[in-house]
Automatic annotation (TrEMBL):
Reaction catalysed by this enzyme: CMP-N-acetyl-beta-neuraminate + acetyl-CoA = CMP-N-acetyl-9-O-acetyl-beta-neuraminate + CoA; a ganglioside GD3 (d18:1(4E)) + acetyl-CoA = a ganglioside Ac-O-7-GD3(d18:1(4E)) + CoA; CMP-N-acetyl-beta-neuraminate + acetyl-CoA = CMP-N-acetyl-7-O-acetyl-beta-neuraminate + CoA
Stretches assigned to the Cas1p 10 TM acyl transferase domain: 227-705
Transmembrane segments: 246-266, 326-346, 366-387, 394-411, 417-437, 444-465, 477-499, 534-550, 571-588, 630-648, 668-689, 701-719
Keywords recorded for this protein, A-Z: Acyltransferase, Glycoprotein, Golgi apparatus, Membrane, Transferase, Transmembrane, Transmembrane helix
Entry EC no(s): 2.3.1.45
Family of the protein in this entry: Belongs to the PC-esterase family. CASD1 subfamily.
A Gene Ontology cellular-component term: Golgi membrane
Location relative to the cell: Golgi apparatus membrane
InterPro entries recorded: Cas1_AcylTrans_dom (IPR012419)
Designated name of the protein: N-acetylneuraminate (7)9-O-acetyltransferase
GO biological-process terms attached to the record: carbohydrate metabolic process
GO MF terms, alphabetically ordered: N-acetylneuraminate 9-O-acetyltransferase activity
Membrane topology qualifier: Multi-pass membrane protein
């Protein structure tokens, strides 16, 4: 993967350095493209066949082009003078030559032999320069022989290949201490193989091609200094930090304990039925449950350790390749058709026909998650209409968060600490482990902080006095007014913060809260994510309240095959829903910028969500069936969303993981299979550990929370003390 350097990044990387481009007109092209990265306003105003200088005063950077079209004694003398100089000696040298030698001597074999002799003599001094700096030899790009002028007809691709082979042989044979310090730069040549037909004169490559070569060169020079996550070449693997070493110790220790327990014959193990994160209603087994074995948590941690090792190898170690995303309509829409055909094929009868029943919400989460995965891997965020529709899907997830948790608290009235800890553990376990193993801040996995925050807000809204439940509300309609007042208070709370960015930032910038919400030292990303879907959760809560009240009053017909509402009302609502879908798609297609569309999104996304719910639930036959294919993915949607960051995508979602180079179709099949299996296994591991880590006994739970709080505080203090002071 190639990081696209901005001018500020290039200046910071190359500050107080001297860079020398040495060669013919092709090297001059590379020089211009390189300096344009540093200064995009730079003009190609130098004279042909002369030296050209470029200075960037703010960073004390000097980039020079020196006209040496042949590898001869003049070039060798220049290199010798640099070796003996201290002040004007370049830190980076980029050079290459061949086309002029072919042109002047009409491609004779004697000239090729002399080229080898000269280059052999020059390579000695290049190696010495590379001891204190960096030296690159640029391989010759191909030519478009049919377009070359008469005085260049002797410069053929066959001749250039011979000269390239000679240069590679000489440089590889100039090894000192077992390896050559001179680096071969072949990026422009590789790109020119596809684009040389677009050359105006047949010799000089198109500007877009030389820009690729310049950007690759910038990556080679700067990646090891600035360490951009999407620059996958030329970086060393950073050493493990304290928390990563602690994680390794924990996983290895668990393996040793598991081995010891196995040796002593303690094999009893039961995997409980996982409760749903939204409702946490456990299905009671028919037979008496076997109590957890001591092996269970260590077995789960061992599996987690192996999985985390795979995560680290995929996206932190330099083991697997990564590639850039390139969006086309076919890469997004064709997979979309495939999965929806599969989803329809695996249709089954629902066990219940209530509005938004469990199978239906799992199905909803499943197909939305699959769409989001395709959206991410295809790079479809570059296409604004798709981006806006996916924004509605994210809002729908948050809508379900509000709907699910409100429904549970309203119906069950369970505000106990056990359930709160269960939900928080299941939402955050994987992300917290990844924060440690992958050395990423909590806010990096933005969706989990978002749903965690909103769960806490929902809990606080409904748990605070007076606690109004359905049982209490049935006795008097006044209590319904009390719920509406609470929801109104929550709406005012949201609006206040939405229009008070300064207060919002000052609250979430306070230590230690800032540790949860900062990304790259700022909470701007958290502000953006929170504001973008700020009303989605309360929309879900209001919808749940209205639906449950109507259900209790028996206004809705939810029997099998029954239409949800009276005929005329249902037809009007269905017509409204279809029109709203079409209108939204037209509006999204007319958007000019993401910023413009995002301003409207919080206010109109709920219309699309409600339209989908109505279309999916008003017809009785639609409520009676669901897609088991989508529902299966819906049960692991959270794990899929998080795992994609590192083992399906790569470079923290900037690129695509390549397990099988050279075969994109096979690669995507293999990586997807592993990715889905890992997400499913992590879901099971999270369930196993939740049963052990979160005890039902309140005293034991409080003790563990206290210990966890103390440990977290110690880690935060250590991380804070390890940060440099602002003036450092």
């Amino acid at each position: 993967m190639m990081h696209k350097y901005k001018s500020t990044e290039a200046r910071n990387c190359l500050a107080e350095k001297r860079v020398a481009f040495v060669g013919d007109s092709r090297i001059r092209q590379l020089f211009y493209s390189f300096t344009k990265i540093i200064d995009p306003e730079r003009r190609e105003d130098g004279n042909k066949h002369e030296d050209i200088s470029f200075e960037e005063d703010t960073s004390s950077l000097n980039v020079d082009f020196l006209w040496y079209p042949e590898a001869n004694n003049s070039l060798k003398e220049r290199l010798i003078s640099w070796i003996h100089e201290t002040t004007a000696k370049p830190d980076v040298v980029i050079l290459g030559a061949a086309s002029w030698s072919i042109k002047l001597h009409r491609g004779s074999s004697e000239t090729l032999q002399q080229y080898k002799v000269n280059l052999t003599a020059i390579a000695v001094y290049l190696e010495r320069l590379a001891e204190d700096g960096e030296v690159y030899w640029v391989l010759q790009e191909p030519v478009n022989e049919g377009v070359l002028s008469e005085n260049r007809k002797m410069i053929t691709n066959q001749q250039l290949d011979l000269y390239n082979e000679a240069a590679v042989d000489v440089i590889n044979s100039s090894k000192r201490n077992g390896r050559s310090r001179i680096k071969l730069l072949a990026a422009s040549r590789q790109a020119a193989l596809e684009t040389i037909s677009q050359s105006d004169d047949g010799l000089h490559v198109p500007e877009s091609t030389r820009d690729v070569g310049a950007m690759v060169l910038m990556n080679s020079l700067c990646n090891k200094i600035l360490r951009p996550i999407d620059g996958s070449c030329c970086q060393t693997i950073p050493p493990l930090n304290f928390l990563q070493k602690l994680a390794v110790f924990l996983f290895l220790g668990s393996a040793l304990i598991l081995l010891a327990l196995h040796v002593f014959g303690i094999n009893r193990h039961r995997r409980p039925v996982p409760p749903d994160v939204e409702s946490l209603e456990e299905k009671k087994p028919v037979t008496a449950a076997v109590p957890f074995s001591p092996k269970a948590p260590f077995h789960a941690l061992c599996r987690m350790g192996v999985i985390m090792g795979y995560f680290y190898l995929c996206d932190r170690a330099d083991m697997f390749m990564k590639e850039q995303k390139f969006y086309t309509h076919s890469t997004f829409f064709i997979p979309l058709v495939y999965i929806f055909v599969l989803g329809v094929f695996y249709s089954e009868n629902s066990k219940e026909t209530k509005l938004l029943n469990r199978e239906q919400t799992d199905e909803w989460k499943g197909w939305m998650q699959l769409v989001i995965l395709i959206y991410h891997i295809s790079g479809a965020s570059a296409f604004i209409p798709v981006y806006m529709h996916v924004r509605v899907l994210v809002a729908a997830y948050l809508f379900q968060t509000g709907y699910g948790h409100f429904s549970f608290f309203w119906l069950k009235g369970d505000f106990g600490l056990y359930r709160v800890c269960q939900v928080l553990f299941r939402l955050n376990f994987l992300v917290l482990v990844l924060c440690v193993v992958m050395d990423r801040p909590y806010q990096f996995y933005y969706f989990v902080p978002l749903v965690t925050f909103w769960f806490v807000i929902i809990y606080a809204t409904l748990a605070l006095w007076p606690q109004i439940l359905q049982k209490r509300a049935n006795s008097s309609g006044v209590w319904h007014l009390g719920v509406l007042m609470k929801l109104l208070g929550l709406l005012l709370f949201i609006c206040f913060f939405a229009f008070s960015q300064g207060i919002f930032e000052s609250i979430f910038s306070m230590w230690p809260i800032s540790k949860l919400f900062e990304l790259h030292g700022s909470i701007h990303e958290w502000w953006f994510r929170w504001k973008l879907d700020r009303f989605a959760v309360i929309h879900g809560m209001v919808f749940a309240f209205i639906y449950l009240v109507l259900q209790k009053r028996q206004v809705l017909s939810e029997g099998k095959g029954e239409i949800l509402l009276p005929g005329k009302i249902s037809n009007l609502l269905l017509l409204f829903s279809v029109i709203s879908f079409i209108t939204y798609s037209i509006w999204a297609s007319s958007c000019k910028t993401k910023t413009e569309c995002n301003e409207m999104h919080p206010y109109i996304s709920v219309v699309q969500i409600l339209s989908f719910i109505l279309i999916r639930n008003i017809p009785g036959y639609a409520r009676s069936v669901y897609s088991s294919f989508f529902a299966w993915f819906g049960k692991i949607s959270l794990e899929l969303f998080i795992c994609q960051y590192h083992i399906w995508l790569a470079a923290d979602t900037k690129g695509i993981l390549v397990l099988i180079p050279g075969n994109p179709s096979l690669n995507i099949m293999v990586s997807t299979f592993i990715f889905v299996c890992v997400a499913h296994e992590i879901s099971l591991i999270t369930n196993d550990l939740a049963q052990v880590v979160i005890p039902k006994d309140s005293v034991a739970l409080l003790k563990r929370l206290g210990a966890t709080g103390i440990f977290s505080l110690v880690v935060l203090l250590l991380s804070r003390s390890g940060q440099p002071s602002p003036g450092a």
